[in-house]
């Protein structure tokens, strides 16, 4: 992890800063000429040819993780025929979200070439605060207790960001101290403020918070929501491309974009069809888990922040070349503090999802393991450890890989030791692919 000197004031103008951010994006594109060729392709065939050239040059994109995920699924299904059943598929959709959200939380700081090791215990503290305030001792409204938990986590991220930027302490050291300190805070919260009869565990007793991970939408509502989302996605893609063409900007061929829309539609319909199958033994259980749509909404919001706002452009600019961004007028330290704050906030959201999944929070939670899964999810999905490259969808893919491994090994009755070792091998493979791709881009 790298450290940077203090900011030297509001150097330059907002226009200069925006130019620097755009320049950083242009520079990144310039070292991937095959990507530019793909955007200039006139036909789907030319686009595919450009994509294949990019893969051969070492920039495989999401291909390795998608191929690996398919291989993992095929292996587990060959070993246990229950893996691809409707019941297990729904279970996987409910196991995945907190792993994905942890990875998304880390993406904000990984884009800067930094890390936050405290996210796991920060999330546990925020969730514990929410459950305690919403419990019988305090009886706060669910939304107020939820906001209090989020605020605690965001403030912890803010404090760590200020320590890193103002005192020039490496993020590894600051957040490692945060991990240890917040583990102690968690013990105090659950042992001193949750009531003497809890035994270090506080249960979730609010049905709204419970339904975050355990609720189901009705089969009819699932179809309505999914079809609406597919239509919105298709309109967005087509309108965006139409505007780009009118402005003489490069974009992928229409056939490629239509293929993307069809692909999204197929996945969405498949999820609804499978989840609407009856998977109950004594009573009918049908419907897509509510958490799927909540997770999708968070992915869209955070992706918008990183790709469609000035702040997002600044994050990529700082991660790509902090000194160039500083000279152009971007307040680098402000961006870094904001990213650590957002990581803290996302940790708070993740903690609530995790508590809803487990239906409680206790002193036995292993925040260290959770944060390692968070980094693994982001890196396995394709986010670079060196900063400047990554997307929220990478955390989705990486979290899905980890959840699939955990789920499949559970069906095969493989213990925790095997799960840890196989996840470690997948992480090493993903990091190796990232290192090879980075070396190829530098050599280009």
Automatic annotation (TrEMBL):
Its main location: membrane. InterPro entries: ABC_transp_permease. Keywords: Cell inner membrane, Cell membrane, Membrane, Sugar transport, Transmembrane, Transmembrane helix, Transport. Signal peptide: none annotated. It comes from the Bacteria. It is a multi-pass membrane protein. It is found in: Cell membrane. It holds the Pfam family BPD_transp_2. The chain crosses the membrane at residues 60-76, 96-112, 143-165, 172-194, 220-239, 251-274, 286-306, 335-357, 369-388, 395-414, 420-437. Coiled coil: none annotated. The keyword Membrane applies. Part of the binding-protein-dependent transport system for D-xylose. Probably responsible for the translocation of the substrate across the membrane. This is Xylose transport system permease protein XylH. The lineage of its organism: Bacteria, Bacillati, Actinomycetota, Acidimicrobiia, Acidimicrobiales.
């Amino acid at each position: 992890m790298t450290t940077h000197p203090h900011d030297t004031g509001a150097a330059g103008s907002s226009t200069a800063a925006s130019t620097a951010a755009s320049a950083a994006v242009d520079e990144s594109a310039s070292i991937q000429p095959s990507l530019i060729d793909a955007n200039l392709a006139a036909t789907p065939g030319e686009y595919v040819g450009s994509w294949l050239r990019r893969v051969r040059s070492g920039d495989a994109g999401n291909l390795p993780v998608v191929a690996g995920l398919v291989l993992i699924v095929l292996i587990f299904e060959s070993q246990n025929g229950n893996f691809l059943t409707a019941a297990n598929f729904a279970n996987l959709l409910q196991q995945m979200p907190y792993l994905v959200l942890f990875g998304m939380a880390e993406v904000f700081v990984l884009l800067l070439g930094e890390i936050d090791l405290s996210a796991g215990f920060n999330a546990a503290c925020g969730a514990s605060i929410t459950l305690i305030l919403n419990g019988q001792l305090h009886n706060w409204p669910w939304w107020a207790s939820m906001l209090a938990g989020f605020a605690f986590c965001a403030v912890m991220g803010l404090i760590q960001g200020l320590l890193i930027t103002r005192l020039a302490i490496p993020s590894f050291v600051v957040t490692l101290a945060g991990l240890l300190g917040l583990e102690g805070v968690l013990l105090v919260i659950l042992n001193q403020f949750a009531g003497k009869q809890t035994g270090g565990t506080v249960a979730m007793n609010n049905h709204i918070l419970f339904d975050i991970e355990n609720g189901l939408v009705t089969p009819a509502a699932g179809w309505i929501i999914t079809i609406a989302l597919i239509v919105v996605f298709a309109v967005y893609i087509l309108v965006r491309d139409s505007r780009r063409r009118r402005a003489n900007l490069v974009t992928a061929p229409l056939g490629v974009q239509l293929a993307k829309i069809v692909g999204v539609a197929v996945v969405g319909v498949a999820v609804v069809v499978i989840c609407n199958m009856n998977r109950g033994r004594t009573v009918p259980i049908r419907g897509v888990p509510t958490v799927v749509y909540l997770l999708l909404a968070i992915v869209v919001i955070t992706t918008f922040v990183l790709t469609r706002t000035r702040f997002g452009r600044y994050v990529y600019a700082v991660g790509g070349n902090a000194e160039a961004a500083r000279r152009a007028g971007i307040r680098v330290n402000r961006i870094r503090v904001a990213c650590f704050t957002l990581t803290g906030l996302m940790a708070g959201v993740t903690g609530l999802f995790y508590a809803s999944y487990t239906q409680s929070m206790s002193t036995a939670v292993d925040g260290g393991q959770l944060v390692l899964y968070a980094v693994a999810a982001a890196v396995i999905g394709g986010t670079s450890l060196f900063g400047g490259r990554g997307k929220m969808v990478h955390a989705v893919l990486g979290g899905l890989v980890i959840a699939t491994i955990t789920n499949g090994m559970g069906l095969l009755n493989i213990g925790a030791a095997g799960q840890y070792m196989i996840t470690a091998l997948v992480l090493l493979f993903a990091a190796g692919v990232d290192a090879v791709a980075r070396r190829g881009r530098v050599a280009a």
